[in-house]
Amino acid sequence: MIVAKQKPIEEIIEEVKDSKKLLILGCNECVTVCEAGGKKEVAVLASALRMYFMNKGQEITIDEHTLERQCDHEYLEEIRGNIDQYDAVLSLACGVGVQFMAEKYFNIPILPGVDTCFMGATEERGVWSERCQGCGKCVLAKTGGICPVSRCAKRLFNGPCGGSTKGHCEINKDVVCGWQLIIDRLKELGKLDDYETLAPIKDWSTERAGGPRKVVREDLQA
Amino acid sequence: MPLQKKIKSGDFVVLGEFEPPKGVDFAPFLKNANQVKGRVDALVVPEMGNAVLKASSLGGCAMLQEAGVETVFQVCCRDRNRLALQADLLSASALGIRNVVVTAGEDIRFGDHPQARAVNDLDVIGLLETLQKLQGGKDLAGIELKGSPTYFMGSTIDTSTPGGLLEIELDSLKKKIDLGVEYIITNPVFDTRRFQQFVKRVDTTQVAIIPTVLLLKSAGMARYIDRNIKGTSIPSEIITGIQKAPDKVQECIAIAARITAQLKEMGMAGVLISTVGWEDRLPQILDEAKLS
Ligand code: SF4
Ligand code: SF4
Asked: I need a labelling partner for A30 at 20 to 30 A (CA). Which of A41, A204, B8, B134 fits?
């Protein structure tokens, strides 16, 4: 899933301070799972902002709503009927949702309430970590199912650097060495031969080198 | 006279574009440079134009400086992060290179290594700020330098962008001037009358305009540019002129010389003559354009 975290409240206040009627819009998918922008976070943030502006003696109406997804035309259409009454929307969806909203509702400022961080997994409640950077050409088959792009600090493709100590990465000893994980798993799978073969030089054209990316499936297009 | 001084004095400057080799044989590069030494004010060394791998601008500049030719070092955002850019800029200064032109660089997908990862850590504006910082004696992290560089800062501009986009180019030019850009090199000019329209919109007391004169090599090349390069049109007389000429190469040289002379006449600060592989013909263009 996409992992995000809520922006510092001061930054959010700065974004919405000129609004008279604000909609805080949550998303029921990834940001709900990582507890950054779901229904619950919308409610908590709305009351914090109401409190703040009330103390300042500033009048502002803050409404709350959470959509099933903000990256889908169908769900975004749900609010078309009543969006015009707001002078701004604070979206707690990831950057994709914020932009998709902004594309659809072109004349209303759509402001981000979270910082979108990475594609990752929930390790335990309150801990999320990165697993994939969407490089567009997955090498996991050769690397024991562990991604050298997102999990090795140097994005190495041919084994660890000299800085790997006791399974930890040289950039930070709280970070596990991606290559230690790869080797351990290849050993377990009896596939250490994969480690011996040289990885071809990575083709980054499917990452961002080729500009903004798109997946088109003609068979699915209407 | 150093380039900066000459531009400031209002004298017409002549720059040549010298692309470093794809490989390590710099002999023709240096031979051609020696032929124009003393006849051009400086040689501009592109940094992998069109994202095609070549030896670097810094390398080419270092070779030329050593041979006693003033150079213009091209720094490009595409391939280097802020560490590498600053490192090269410091080295350049220590090698005696003062003239720096910053560019964004064409996208990697247009070049010969489309699998490469683009860097674009800084944009052109950020890179100019970096130059300012270095000149002020500190690096981007705010740490004091041992000896600070001085640069004569330039940039590029695309004058052929249509309508609204040109506004954007001009807005960005203002920002560049505020950040210390003193000269801008344009895309190739073939239609001087149309180019004049662009010149009118720039305050030339603030920034020197150096148009590029591109040496055409054939009528086919001219037609290709005319049809395929957005915003660039080549007057039909030029194309038919090449077609009809008994000595086509001579005609191409004459065209470049003529445009150069016209731009001088128009009061431009100078020209950059780009000969794309025909650097050995640069002296002939200079002769025809009656540039010493
Ligand atoms: S190799 Fe690429 S696609 Fe596969 S997990 Fe890593 S970043 Fe994601
Ligand atoms: S220590 Fe491991 S994870 Fe860190 S950079 Fe080196 S190989 Fe990559």
From this structure: A204
